[in-house]
Amino acid sequence: MQLRNLQIPVGAVFAPMAGLTDAACRHLMADHGAAWTVSEMASAKALNFNDQKSFALLKDKNPHGLYAIQLFGAEPETLAKAILLVKEKGIKFDILDINMGCPAPKITSSGAGSRLLLDPPLCGRMVAAARKALGDDTPLTVKTRIGWDAENLTGVEVAKQVEANGADLIAVHGRTREQMYIPPIDTAAIASVKQAVRIPVLANGDVTDADGALALLQETGCDGVMIGRGALGDPWLFAQVRAALLGEERPPEPTLNQRMAALRAQIYEMCEEKGEWAAMPQARSQAMHYMKGLRGAASLRRYCSMLEHFTDVDRLIEAVYRLQ
Ligand SMILES: Cc1cc2nc3c(=O)[nH]c(=O)nc-3n(C[C@H](O)[C@H](O)[C@H](O)COP(=O)(O)O)c2cc1C
Q: What's this model's pTM, rounded to 2 decimal places?
C-alpha cells in the first residue's frame, strides 16, 4: 500500500489505545511487524494552550517503524493550529490521524471523537483544515466507527466527506458509539464504508489471530486490518498476520522464554521512559495480558495486580516458571 509518498509495509496496523499505547508498547509491536503504530490521542485544544503533557503524548524520541500521531478535537481551526504547533515543535511523525471514534463521554461532550459522526459535513471540514495545515506530503488518516447509534449509521456519509476533503485512508471500528466495545462487530457495515470510497479502508475490531484477520478482510473487502486489544501481550500476532497476508508459512508460536523476555523488556522500557513510579501501575495491566493461557493464570494475574517495583517483575516471572 502506498499513502502519498509513503510506502506501507505489509502487515496489520497497531490500533491507538489511550493509556496503553505508550512508546514501549508501540516499539514492541513495530519490532514484531506492525505496519505502523499510533500515538495516544492528544487534544487539539490542549495543544493550542501549549499543554506540555499533550505534546509529550505525541513525542516519541525514537519511533520504531512508521509512526502516526492522533489528535482529537471538534473545531477545524483549532485542529489546524494544533498541527502547525506540532510541526513547529519538531515532533517526528509519518502519518497524522484524526480521532472520529472515541466513545468516552469526556471526549464526546466536547463535540469530539465519535460525536463528530453526527455531523458528516463537519468531519469533512476537519479533514480539509488538517490537510491544509499538514501540506501535501504527509498522509492524513481518519479513525472512525460505523456510526453514532443504530438510528445514525453515518459511517458511509462520513467516509465520503473525509475522502472528498483530502483523507488518504480510513480505519473503521465495526461498532457504533452506543455499542462501545462489547457486541460483535458489524462486518457488513464496514464493507459498506469500503464500497463507498476509493481510498484504502482498514477494518478493525476483535481480531485475535491471523485467520481472524484474513476472515475480516474477506468479509469486508477492506485493504488491511487494524488490531488493538488482541495484540496486547501477544506482539507475535503481527508476524502471524504478515505471514498470512503474504501467503507464507506462519512463524512458530513464541516459547515461554520469549514471552517472559518480551514482558520484561517492555516493562523495563516503560520504566526507563517515564520512571518506575509512573510506569508500574500501567505495567500491571500490560503484564496481565502476558498471562493468557498460562497454567495458574488467575493467581498470576493477582500477582500482576501487585507489581510495585521493576524487581517485582522478576519475581512474577519466577512464579510463572514455577507454575508451568
Ligand atoms: C483502552 C482503550 C483505549 C482506546 N483508545 C483509543 C484512542 O485513543 N483512539 C482511538 O482512535 N481508538 C481508541 N480505542 C479503540 C481501538 O483503537 C480499537 O478501535 C478498538 O479497541 C477495537 O479494536 P480491537 O478489538 O482490535 O481492540 C481504544 C480502545 C481501548 C480498549
A: 0.98
